[in-house]
Amino acid sequence: MALLGSLVFAMSPVHAQDASSTTDAKPKPDEKAKNLDGIVVTARSGVEQRTKAETSYSITTIDEDRLRMQAPTSVTEAMKSVPGFWVEASGGEASGNIRARGIPVDGFGSVNLLEDGIPVQHDPALGYLNADQAFRLDETIERVEVVRGGPSTIFYSNAPAGAINFIPRQVGETASGVAKFTVGDYGLTRGDFWYGTPLKGGWKISAGGFYRTDTGIREPGFNANDGGQIRLNIGKDFQGGSFDFDVKHMDDKVALYLGIPMRTYPNGDIKAVPGFDGNYGTIAGPETEHVQMKMANGGLYNFDNADGTHVKRDQLTLKFNLDLGDGWKLAESMRYDDTHTQRNGVFPNTLQSATAFLAANQKYLPAGAAGLQLRYVDSGKVYNTANQNGNGLVVVAGLRGVTMPLKEFINDTRVMRQFDFGGTHDVTMGYYYARFDQKFSRYSSSALTDVRDNALLLDLVAVDAAGNPLSKLTDNGIYRYGYEWENASGRSTTNAFYLSDEWQVTPELRIDGGARWEQVNTRGHTEQKQQVNQGTLATSQMWTGTGVFVPWDHTFNKLGWTLGANWQFSDRQGLFGRWTSAFRLPNLSSYITSPAATPIIQTMKLGEIGYKYTDRQFDIYATAFYTKYNNVGFSNAVFNAQGNSSTVQQGYADTKTTGLEFEGSWFPVNWFDVQVTATIQDPKYKGLRYTEAVAGAPVLRNYEDNQLIRVPKQSYRVVPGVNLLDGRLRLQVSYEYEGQRYVDTANSVKLPSYDVWNASARYDISQMCSLFFYVDNITNSLGLTEGNPRAGELQSADAGANTFIARPILGRAYRAAIMYRF
């Protein structure tokens, strides 16, 4: 089977190769349509190398030149060219969402993110701690391999729907390097570099990284993104093996973009409300940048939205390969990281008219007051409830701060050997161990703001009959302190054993299979909480700790397996098929804030049949797939402004998706080519029923056969390009289409289909120096990627409303870069 895991004996980060391949990634004309000849290093393991043509599962490869022309600004943006993936990158450079083959799991809950074949984070979806927060794409990365379904679940934990492997540059036989400087029209200034050189005695060393700062496409009034990373790699090839050590330090802040106020107009168009810029606006602004939030214990919580998602990470990676003799090979990989994440954001919890808000708060009217007004905190000016900012709307915004320190150790040991009986068997036996210790604390307060770009804070004021202010019910714009409070810590320990065999039955036919048994133990304690009233409206419902901790200790285990075959009936084409029984064990986030929770093991059945073809003009990869996902847990917090709390909605269901993925390239002439990816699928909920109380009576919700949340039935991407001036000038555009989706499982709030145009150009000044130009979202599309999760994702409270919160893609942006290769 083409099952290759995180490390292959013949592919270490410092293996010898022609240095020119790392500095000049443009393919030669006679090599363009040979993508299936590339060596695959993801989701398989064995002594022998396998090409993409020989794999028995779906895999997308994104080479260096394709990456540079696409110039993704985030990990999730890089996945837009992968069929079968619904990619949501509207939240900024980190905290993206990927839904693979119709599995409705947020973040990276169904795919694992790898760096050099090792998980960036053992569990890539820890709740507020996605793996893409701890990884940045820069010029130290050479290419990407993306496996969908297939054997990923055998070689990696928490990867039932696939694995994304970012593969670093390799040091060649001679010294080489890359330096790049990028600017953008949103205040972007960025520098990237990489340099690698061989040393005496078989040693090789490289260093690289980036630093950038920008104000953000949705500018909050301060630097949205600020920071970078640096890595140092040293390795040695020796007789019978290799050794590689990698150190990386990251200190980076990125903005967390959230939903904005949108409106459905009489002609059916969905745009931002009047007074708000849908392409570039954000509720966050200077007035909500720094807030000292009162806590029930008398202390202050320093909310600093300029931090955004601030990650400080030190990562150590050790890999070595060893020939044990008699045909046996050993591959060892270890990673340790110490990661501290502070995740702050201004969450638009509810949106309503000022008139409705004042009416709902009449119950707080103090004695002797004749009414309530809204007034600006900075100026004291009275808010015009009829048409302030052209909309007369207010937002109850959540100032949410989450702190998550994490220390993690991962070890993967593989022993491999080839046996000859009934053909050849390439066998791998592996053991995987992971342990991480995590702390989790959260404190949130709600603030009143108007609705405009960089919204201003409002106070709720009691007035007399003449409209003169008597007293403020809010505290400098803070409506309620402490609507969220959590304090917990835990440890997760995973042990897994796996076995794989690639059986070459005939030169044309290979059968492969594998199995993985995994056990996870999660233990820790969560502090119980209580609500405290300190006498004012702003301090009347403050959640805080009791000092009593609830311990928890749970163990789960499961066996998964896969069986596939590849029939390469000619040099240019072949067929493959696979069936996989996968699983996902509960993680630390299942308990860390809910010690009484009883999560269950999620199980999946995945099938695929594929066809691949390549020649001088065409690369074609078509896959029909089936996904049955059992026991998908649905849990989201619905904000209640009056109760100053978030109520958790939870349910379990199954999903079933059948679909067709297509990936192809056409090179009719040397000066023109086109790349196409497309997904057509029918994603459905099965058995999604639950009962909730409505007006004190139980009401059954039945969402059988509803379309999966935020997953389109059709999506495609077309990228035509031309090569001019003997290939020195490359021009290309990309057209992306995403079909209709829904905000909630009830399918009560629709997200319309949308399309996006992007363009890029590369001009080679010389063999060493190139210029790049990019325009993203040329037409300023307002494609909506999600609604308001705080309104409920099981059944949205926004159903039927013509004014609501939703998150569109980012507005048009321009970038230019100069790169020097040496």
UniProtKB/TrEMBL annotation:
<dbReference type="InterPro" id="IPR039426">
    <property type="entry name" value="TonB-dep_rcpt-like"/>
</dbReference>
<feature type="region of interest" description="Disordered">
    <location>
        <begin position="15"/>
        <end position="35"/>
    </location>
</feature>
<feature type="compositionally biased region" description="Basic and acidic residues">
    <location>
        <begin position="25"/>
        <end position="35"/>
    </location>
</feature>
<dbReference type="Pfam" id="PF00593">
    <property type="entry name" value="TonB_dep_Rec_b-barrel"/>
</dbReference>
<keyword id="KW-0406">Ion transport</keyword>
<keyword id="KW-0813">Transport</keyword>
<keyword id="KW-0732">Signal</keyword>
<protein>
    <submittedName>
        <fullName>TonB-dependent receptor</fullName>
    </submittedName>
</protein>
<keyword id="KW-0408">Iron</keyword>
<dbReference type="Pfam" id="PF07715">
    <property type="entry name" value="Plug"/>
</dbReference>
<dbReference type="GO" id="GO:0009279">
    <property type="term" value="C:cell outer membrane"/>
</dbReference>
<keyword id="KW-0675">Receptor</keyword>
<feature type="domain" description="TonB-dependent receptor-like beta-barrel">
    <location>
        <begin position="299"/>
        <end position="778"/>
    </location>
</feature>
<feature type="signal peptide">
    <location>
        <begin position="1"/>
        <end position="16"/>
    </location>
</feature>
<keyword id="KW-0410">Iron transport</keyword>
<keyword id="KW-0472">Membrane</keyword>
<dbReference type="InterPro" id="IPR012910">
    <property type="entry name" value="Plug_dom"/>
</dbReference>
<keyword id="KW-0812">Transmembrane</keyword>
<dbReference type="InterPro" id="IPR037066">
    <property type="entry name" value="Plug_dom_sf"/>
</dbReference>
<dbReference type="InterPro" id="IPR036942">
    <property type="entry name" value="Beta-barrel_TonB_sf"/>
</dbReference>
<feature type="domain" description="TonB-dependent receptor plug">
    <location>
        <begin position="52"/>
        <end position="163"/>
    </location>
</feature>
<dbReference type="InterPro" id="IPR000531">
    <property type="entry name" value="Beta-barrel_TonB"/>
</dbReference>
<comment type="similarity">
    <text>Belongs to the TonB-dependent receptor family.</text>
</comment>
<keyword id="KW-0798">TonB box</keyword>
<keyword id="KW-1134">Transmembrane beta strand</keyword>
<keyword id="KW-0998">Cell outer membrane</keyword>
<dbReference type="GO" id="GO:0015344">
    <property type="term" value="F:siderophore uptake transmembrane transporter activity"/>
</dbReference>
